[in-house]
Amino acid sequence: MSESSDRDIDEQLQSLQAKESEFTSLCMFESAHRVATEIRRLARAERRFTPYLRATFTIMNNSGDRLSIHKPVATPPLR
Amino acid sequence: MLASNELARSIQPDLSEQEYEWAVHWYSSCGYDNLAKATAEISGHNSEGMHACISEGIEVCRRTGKTQCITCFREYATDVYHTADDTDMALHYARMGMAAENLESQDRRWASVTDVMEILLTRGELAAASELADSAIEFVETWHSPIRARLITKNILTEIAYLLGDPKRWEEQCVQAAPPKGEYLSYELSCDCMQAMIECIAGDFDAAIKRLTRWEQQLTRRQCFEQWAETRFCLLAAYRMAGNQLEFERLADQLQRKLQAARDWHALRCLKYMRDESTIPVPRVITNHLDVGPFAPQKSNVAATSSIDSGSDSDSEKEEDASADQSITIDDSSDHELPPVIAEIHERLAKLIADETPADEGQDSIDNIITDLMAINTLDQTSEDDRQSTSRWALYTLSLLVPQTELANEVWDWAGKLLAGQRQDAVTLSLVARLGSILKYNGSEQMSDRIDEKQLEGWFRESLDLDAENASNFGRAGDFFLFLENLGEAERCYARGWRLDRSDGDLASKLARIYRRTERERDALAVLDMTIRTGTEDPNLLWEAALSAQVLGQHESTLTYLQAFDDLVPDQPWGNYYRTNSLLELQRFEEALTAVERETELNPDSPFPVLAQRAAIAAGTGQTAKLQQWVTEILSLPLSSIDYLTPSGLQKALAVLWQAAETLAADDPLRVQVIELLVASHLAPDRLFEQHRVIGEPLENVNFYRCTIEQPLDERWLNWPGRLVGEEELSSYQATWGVIARSDNEAAESVLEWQSKCFPLAAKILDVELAGEGYREHVGVVWQRPRISS
After folding, report:
1. pLDDT at B317
2. Cα B625 from Cα B721, distance rounded (Å)
């Protein structure tokens, strides 16, 4: 993968993380959840451990507020 | 992923070690926190393993260095203890959180104050809860998510305002627009519960019931047990206020079954209160009548309504209740009346113990007594209660005797038959399980094979399910789990037993010891203190509390406990030693001198720590000549002769000695000798190194290392001043040093320089571990740790 493509993905992840943080701070947990799920998918596909882990924690942290404790966090398969 | 580097690399194959370690450090404690909360939400806060999560979570925080997250586990402990129906301890945890001022991102005082308010509200202490409103409002802005804190606080304040009969009380405060519908479901649930309460107060019960029923169905689908139970309580309150007793009872029965399965003792008590027809219907869950507002009983009714609850919250009420609800319990200090046939056996035992001559043929023996115990025909007893009591006492007595008998097999056969006839009696089941565990672990290999550990565990657990109100049963189960080193379950059992009987010093002490083992000294002291306040006159408990308070630096409390101890058992050795330690910390030198002189009289064979204290008093009062005299005397005592102090006791005494010696001039030969002695003992206090290290300006970008050395020894070791008692056989030892340095080479050099003061032979470096980097600090040795045999 080229350096510029790598940078694009990192920027894309950062932008999604900023969006997720904003939703979380506004207590919009469903929206934050949707963005975190997308971050998780992208991070796994593009092999980024830290964003993947962080998004997983966001999903877990918000599950109580979304009354969705019991639902397992779906793990997308590796490409 | 946080436990497996390999799994993490399946996500990112080129993940660096540094990035992975950072993730482990940052997320491990949060992972534990999430797991604990989710498990609690699904299975309840009092389900198995929940207590263990508190200590394990705290341990993970310490292990990964994220100590600021310990507060999260204290909040979690608040919920665990609340569910276990120990509101005093729940308040203890929550109030500790409130007191933990931290203005950085980890400030969690808001969560703690709302916990305290909820606990107080449930206890009916509406006035006290409302007094905390200002703190809750103040702390909202310190929470990491102020919008969320504002939303939740608003609901709490609205609830309190309505219960006070003053709905507009905080109307202008904590104003926050709600997020769009569907975004924050748990908040929407909270708002609907609130709205239902308001509707109930207004008499619109149908609207409230409809609103809550809809949520109940949704929560059932989502398997959110705890929130479902909370909603069911609101629904029950609505039915009760509406006067629909039939539906109320039907729904209450359902809830009761689920709460029993989850062992949610607090909610069960709330339900019991709600089902009591003599209590005033209130639109929220409580365990005691509200103390103020329109739902508070009229003054003349207070006595009648407050005495209903058998498990009241405050200790004073608990005392009154104790006589009303006395189930038969058998414990080690039981003073219940013995059945005559058992009393006779105990008399024979007393005679046997008193008679120290070897047993002749025809003389009584333990085996004879055991045989007679097993031969007791309980059918001779006139009532079922007497029969049961006799069987229990027989089991209890046998459990004391079986370690000394060859009749283990026969005893176990007998216990099996007895149990078959009384399978549903919780105490009998618990006593048989205890007898079994003694036979299995203290007896022969044959018994160890014959008795199944899983079955014993099952019996202990079943006994607790059969009777969740028997403190002794919980104590016995706690002993079993402690023996198996299952500290979490032991804690859960002891905590519940102690909740049921606050005056039980034995249970309090065992629970405190578990807290201490999991580095929760403050919680240990809270437990001991609560039991002491019940009026229990147990000198051991006072002693334990005194030592605990001293470790925590609570010196005034230490002196109070020691005084109470002295009042019960005067003139004991060591009491004045600990008293002097606290008086020295408080710089009350005159009283310290009186105490140390008394200790010298009472404890003449343990001179070292007392001489160190005398030196510290001389130093504190500026008497240099006297100080030199005491230090000279101390240096004449070889450390290897001190067999009356524990390693930590010796360490403390040496710290006191250094506190005194450091007031001597830097070139005073006595001071130099003390430094040599302390360093050679490997028990030198950190402060000694700090004074050598902190000179001049600190350096940028320095690292912290842990260095392990190996020190060879020779024939000089036997008489070496740094040798401690029991170390005469050592031929070499290993020890770890903490050091700040610019590089690992510099770290090793610093350590070897200090180590060369420990023994004349050259030591070698075994390992230099980088433990932290990028500090602005003074370089040099920070600490040394006690040596171990290599």
Report:
1. 41
2. 24
